[in-house]
Design a protein that fits this description.
4-stranded antiparallel β-sheet, alpha/beta, Rossmann fold
Length: 313
């Protein structure tokens, strides 16, 4: 079980880029890796059936400054080839869980498996070719251009002394186009707005071209138009390339519209998980978010939430 008490809903360090992403491990990492870490399907078929699954087992995750674990769960699954949204109030452990799934925070207990292999068994660059993480905190020199930042996402695909390849150029061009920052390609980060910078970082993580994409609040700082654009990009990558996605979102309605699955966290533990129409109930919104709301599960675009009033915590 994912949580211990609830019945689930059923259904379907030198390794970082400028900033806190898993992408630009740069040339500092080694390129060697175990056979299991780089193994691929023998039949060569495409589609979600060959997409990787990310699985956490018997996890207890904390920080050196915390006496007790911040997150505890028996099982947490990011299904292969699907979009899974992590939702919950501030401090519920969403970002902590995502960091651990990306091998950015070692669990105190348990393990995280990528297609059956412990993520800690991968060499840094080998993991970065399979899994990309865009965290909330990232930094880069103000003088770097959007295009140069996107090229940082290609470092896991090159050796230390290897030059840029045609495949790198194609990946960067595609990422910049998908992120909608072609008009900002030569602009320096220091001259961009907060929303434009976020789109530049999204272009970088897209250029990394991984099978698994972990995004921690990627729509932060973005206006509604660009929020929807980012979510459409995520959905396009998932539908067309079978990218496995885990995404932390504060907007529960947005999560319900774009995700195949929701994981609702409360006090560091999964409260419920499954398809949005099964998970998003008025009871969950009251228990997890302390909000009185009505939910229309029959809305064509996914469950429609109408918040009414806050509840006492």
């Amino acid at each position: 079980m994912m949580g211990e008490d609830r019945e689930p809903s059923t259904g379907s360090p030198s390794g970082e880029a400028p900033g806190g992403t898993r992408a630009a491990d740069g040339g500092a990492g080694t390129s060697g890796e175990s056979d299991s870490a780089e193994s691929t399907a023998a039949d060569g078929t495409d589609g979600a059936e060959n997409a990787p699954e990310l699985l956490g087992e018997d996890l207890a995750i904390g920080y050196p400054t915390t006496e007790d674990p911040v997150v505890e769960c028996e099982t947490v699954a990011i299904p292969a080839g699907e979009i899974t949204a992590l939702v919950g109030p501030n401090g519920s452990g969403k970002s902590t869980l995502l960091k651990s799934m990306a091998d950015q925070l070692a669990p105190e207990r348990g393990r995280v498996l990528l297609d059956g292999a412990d993520v800690q068994s991968f060499e840094t660059k080998a993991l970065a070719r399979k899994l990309g993480l865009l965290s909330q905190q990232h930094n880069a020199p103000d003088s770097i251009t959007v295009e140069d930042l996107a090229y940082h996402g290609r470092y896991p695909h090159r050796g230390f002394f290897e030059s840029v390849t045609e495949a790198d150029r194609e990946a960067v061009d595609r990422a910049i186009d998908l992120a909608g920052v072609e008009h900002l390609r030569n602009a320096e980060l220091g001259n961009l707005s907060g929303g434009q910078k976020q789109l530049a970082w999204i272009a970088m993580i897209l250029a990394q071209d991984t099978d698994v994409l972990l995004l921690d609040e990627p729509t932060t700082f973005l206006d509604l138009h660009h929020q929807l654009r980012v979510m459409e990009v995520v959905r396009t990558l998932n539908r067309e390339a079978s990218v496995t996605v885990a995404i932390v979102l504060h907007d529960v309605g947005q999560a319900a519209r774009f995700a195949d699955n929701l994981i609702a966290l409360k006090d560091g533990e999964p409260y419920d998980w499954g398809p949005p129409r099964d998970v998003l109930t008025e009871e969950l919104l009251a228990d997890v978010f302390h909000v009185e709301a009505s939910v229309d599960v029959d809305s064509p675009g996914g469950p429609n939430i109408a918040p009414e009033s806050p509840l006492n915590e």
